[in-house]
């Protein structure tokens, strides 16, 4: 018996509904079937995947039968052929030489940088002075990625670079789901903005590459230093263009997602005082234990103690996963769990929708970090997958968790963040990653332990 259900609405109605409200559309289809056919053309049929079993087939069991396709083609215009957009053998080779960037000893060094940069931010936040949380978190995580991956300080250029990242993300998001992809060479206002942003980011990237070649010892323990010391399969150094692509990938995919998740976290804590109090209780207890022991643990050891803080981040990633949609395409015919899908089929997998399945999570719309008391393993493997899965799963998953947890802990140890009055309830904006539409202004209030 087939597990494919046909959507009852017309192709035209589906298109306009998705363009107007993609998240609402995906939630509406969540319980229509394990796989929902959008009744598009027989030449390029499109399906929405709701079942964790089918997600596992696509991302893991039969991943060699799928390509990222259109989404990679759009992102490639900005980040080139880096790890996020490379396919097949090229992707496997890149992932192999990038793995050492995320070894444990490097993660320990990155954790220290996260705490240092966050404490620098905490020192300049003013009691009672509203701040745009999206901009603040973007600049913080941008500075962290630049220091940890490239050993580069961005103090003077941080705002300009963050704006360039934002411009590339907005323009890419508009293009991914557009029916027509206009070449960047066409001088539309959006393309002009996009190309300017790429030039801004590239200028920084190539300047850092040149500096690393002049002073290789200074960059030896960074991702950039590793890339400069790595040879490809032919024994040749990695070309500057490929290094540029990996650096651009880290700048865009490596910080904007974490920044967005943190803004959602601050928003959720403001709305859920009981959750916030439990978080503060954990932070106060750990700080008191450290004072009693008279020892200051390193950042990585502190991360391992922050059990509830980590659960707060996990719950944020459940309700507001930065990667709200995963796209895959087939080249040939594929059979999955008894159903046959024709060549050139497109599949849209939405962690945002799947994570909100009441049948799995119970009261799924509620923000309850204690769900994770027993860990994510209590649910089907792909009922919760904020970092994707399979060989194309996020290579920086552990780094992202360490970064988000330590930032949350360091700032929440000092401040509560209260939403400025008069703002509406936060609305998710599904760009390349999921952010709060129009951002969120919040007021830092010093917290008494």
TrEMBL record:
Family affiliation: Belongs to the cytochrome P450 family.
Protein name, per record: Cytochrome P450
Residues of the signal peptide: none
Cytoplasm found in the keyword field: no
Organism: Paenibacillus spongiae
Lineage: Bacteria, Bacillati, Bacillota, Bacilli, Bacillales
Keywords, comma-separated and alphabetical: Heme, Iron, Metal-binding, Monooxygenase, Oxidoreductase
PANTHER family: BIFUNCTIONAL ALBAFLAVENONE MONOOXYGENASE_TERPENE SYNTHASE (PTHR24291:SF50), CYTOCHROME P450 FAMILY 4 (PTHR24291)
Pfam name, any one: p450
């Amino acid at each position: 018996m087939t597990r494919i259900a046909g959507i009852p609405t017309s192709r035209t109605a589906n298109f306009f509904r998705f363009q107007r409200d993609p998240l609402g559309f995906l939630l509406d289809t969540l319980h229509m079937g394990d796989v929902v056919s959008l009744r598009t053309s027989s030449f390029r049929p499109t399906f929405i995947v709701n079942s964790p079993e089918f997600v596992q087939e696509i991302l893991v069991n039969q991943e060699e039968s799928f390509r990222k396709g259109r989404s990679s083609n759009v992102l490639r215009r900005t980040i080139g052929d880096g790890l996020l957009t490379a396919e097949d053998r090229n992707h496997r080779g890149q992932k192999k030489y990038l793995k050492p960037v995320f070894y444990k000893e490097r993660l320990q060094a990155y954790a220290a940088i996260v705490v240092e940069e966050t404490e620098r931010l905490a020192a300049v936040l003013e009691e009672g002075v509203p701040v745009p949380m999206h901009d603040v978190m973007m600049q913080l995580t941008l500075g962290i990625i630049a220091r940890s991956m490239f050993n580069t300080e961005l103090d003077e250029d941080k705002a300009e670079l963050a704006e360039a990242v934002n411009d590339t993300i907005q323009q890419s998001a508009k293009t991914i789901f557009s029916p027509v992809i206009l070449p960047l060479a066409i001088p539309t206002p959006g393309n002009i903005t996009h190309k300017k942003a790429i030039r801004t980011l590239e200028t920084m990237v190539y300047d850092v590459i040149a500096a690393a070649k002049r002073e290789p010892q200074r960059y030896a323990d960074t991702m950039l230093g590793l890339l400069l010391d790595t040879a490809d399969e032919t024994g040749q150094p990695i070309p500057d263009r490929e290094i540029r692509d990996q650096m651009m990938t880290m700048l865009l995919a490596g910080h904007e997602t974490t920044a967005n998740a943190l803004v959602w976290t601050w928003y959720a804590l403001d709305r859920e005082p009981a959750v916030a109090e439990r978080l503060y209780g954990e932070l106060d207890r750990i700080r008191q234990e450290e004072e009693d022991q008279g020892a200051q643990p390193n950042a990585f050891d502190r991360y391992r103690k922050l059990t509830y803080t980590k659960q707060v981040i996990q719950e944020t990633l459940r309700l507001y996963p930065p990667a709200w949609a995963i796209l895959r395409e087939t080249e040939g015919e594929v059979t999955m769990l008894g159903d046959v899908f024709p060549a050139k089929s497109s599949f849209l997998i939405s962690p945002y929708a799947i994570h909100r399945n009441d049948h799995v999570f119970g009261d799924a719309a509620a923000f309850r970090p204690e769900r994770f008391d027993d860990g994510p393993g209590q649910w089907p493997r792909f009922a919760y997958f904020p970092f994707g899965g399979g060989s194309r799963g996020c290579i920086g998953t552990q780094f992202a968790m360490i970064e988000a947890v330590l930032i949350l802990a360091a700032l929440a140890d000092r401040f509560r963040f209260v939403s400025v009055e008069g703002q509406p309830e936060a609305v998710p904006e599904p760009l390349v990653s999921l952010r709060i539409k129009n951002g969120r202004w919040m007021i830092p209030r010093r917290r008494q332990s």
